[in-house]
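Bench log. Compound arrived from synthesis this morning; before running ITC I wanted a structural hypothesis for how NAI sits in the protein. Inputs:
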Amino acid sequence: MVDLNKFLDELKARTDLQALVFLSGKEGNFIAGAKIEEIENITDPRDGAEKAAMGQAVFAKIDALPFPVIAVIDGACVGGGLELALACHYRLARDSEKTRIGLPEIRLGIIPGFGGTQRLPRLIGIQRALDFILTGKLVDAQRAYRAGIIDRVIPQEFLPQQLRRLGVAFVQEIQNAPTREKILARRNRANPQTLLLEKNVLGRKVLFDQARRRTLAETKGHYPAAELALEAVEKGFSKNLPEGLKIEAGLLGKAIVTNVSKNLVKIFYLTEAVKKDAGVENYSAAIPAFHKIGVLGAGLMGGGIAQLMAHNDLHARMKDINLAAVAKGMETAAKVFSESVKRRRLTPKDMQNKMALISGTADYSGFKDVDLVIEAIVEILDVKKKVFAEVDGLVPPHCLLASNTSSLPITEMARATQRPDKFAGLHFFNPVHRMPLVEVIRGADTSDATVAGLVAFAKKIGKTPIVVMKDTAGFLVNRILGAYMAEAGRMLMEGATVEQIDGALVEFGMPMGPVNLFDEIGIDVAAKVSHILENAFGSRMAGEGMLDKIVESGRLGKKNGKGFYIYEGKNKKVDPAIYAFLGKGGKFEGIAAEIQDRCVLQMINEAALCLAAGVVRRPADVDVGMIFGTGFPPFRGGLLRYADARGIDNIAGKLETLAGKYGERFKPAELLVQMKNNGKKFYP
Ligand code: NAI
């Protein structure tokens, strides 16, 4: 920024220039934004505001140059990178896979601070700008063009080396006034109605009120940056640009020092660490290539997994017991692709091509050249063992075998084959295309090469993997979630209402309450899992038969329209009849904070037990698992980051109090007690 500043002063003084073209010397990367450390280290709002003002001042010099300034974008143009481009007078972008354009600041709990909240609404209109600023979404060159951010898309056929020449040609083009006018006119082409709204004060008020309501409904007030960004756009838009920029800088200062921002930055680091982690310490051997994947079982998960393979341009060979079942799997996959087509993320032609990568069979034909088999058949150990023994004899020697089981022992399945070293768990979450987490589970015989191969594979298909070191019940995520849901069940039986429990945990920040989650998972499935967990870990996981009774009555949850809630079309409401199944009833004294503590501290305690037992390698795996597998609120920085923030003292103490009141199951884990005594944290 200092160099750029000096350079711009020199340019301004020159009289021999017709135009300035910004190009990146780094192929496939325009500017990827500010260094995250810079954001993390700011603890004084004045410092934040000052840094923003400095950046704004540099970019204002670009804007003020007496000749046209053009950004020619190829690759990432995000955050401060886009703000630089917005300060230019024209923007061209190459239509390459690497081109990503947007303002992702909100994802780090801050707002754009180098002019983004001011220049973008002025360029493309308030509503369209808010859609970028409040979601942090990144789009490709075509979409950025449609939104009005980009003035021209450079077809991919042009090579990076040709961009300079194209930039210069564009300079010549815009010497022509009608051409110039045409380019400027297409930028803010919002429909006339919204334009009218945006043009007058009252209309804008309506618009911002709506946006604020929508934002609050989504963030529930947990993400202050969203409100600050709205404030920056609203207040700035009615002022001139320099005043707007001042407002933006002040609000950036406010956002950057919030705990939420610091927590979101930590999560950013967590995900970066996952990207670098091979899954095995110091692993350096080659990773095998995966081209064709065998998928066993074409049910809900198998269909989803086949879709995910095809989405990533891998061949999927799906096998089920008959062709009707295979067809259902195809349908499941096609439905996910159709959604993308509807949202214009995929063309119908692309969908066709991707679907063509999925083929099906009722025998094992087509399995002799697969590189990996992912099994997602019925959750019955003997059936899985039999199927794995069969497939083991058919696939090539290098092929890895993986089970998507939620609860069955990996080691036992592996030993049904002749290649237990090439066998592991590969646990996806439902719905497969949406849930980012995958657990890679080691059996007793699983080799390092298999773990590293599956970890690399999970990343290749766009997922976030964590390695589970032991194939104990529930692996990591479902075990921790099990402790949480069992506690919610107990409160129901003590007489708490569904609304009390779900309300308290949604307020805590969970994407949905635990009772609602029973319905989503399917009460039958939840009951089965709870028995498995209870067998393995005892009474803290016990459901006391509550779920079984509900299942017997024919309530399975959302999938059959009736569970704790009743589902009618898109609406749901708590079914008062459900309380007949919940035992004692009566008056429940718990307040929201206690409901939250009972559920959340059970999770923390279970996580501590997992760490002590070596189920995962480090606290970060717990946090990645819970955020990306269950939606544990990111603004809290993760389950164990939250425990650190509250203080291990506080957590252990509160667990002891709860143990006194409700019994042994709250007894703080040995690890927590030690940490408390030694003043340790999960993240030193
Ligand atoms: P599903 O019941 O929808 O599908 C199972 C499919 O396996 C059916 O199409 C069935 O015909 C087929 N099948 C049964 N025996 C077979 C055999 N011998 N050979 C080939 N196919 C056979 O079940 P879903 O929900 O897809 O679950 C599959 C696996 O994924 C289970 O192990 C489950 O624990 C696991 N899982 C399920 C999740 C969920 O949310 N549903 C989440 C994560 C894992």
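What the model suggests: Residues 296-302, 319-321, 325, 376-379, 383, 387, 404-406, 428-430 surround NAI (CB under 6 Å). The longest strand covers residues 423-428.
ITC booked for Thursday regardless.
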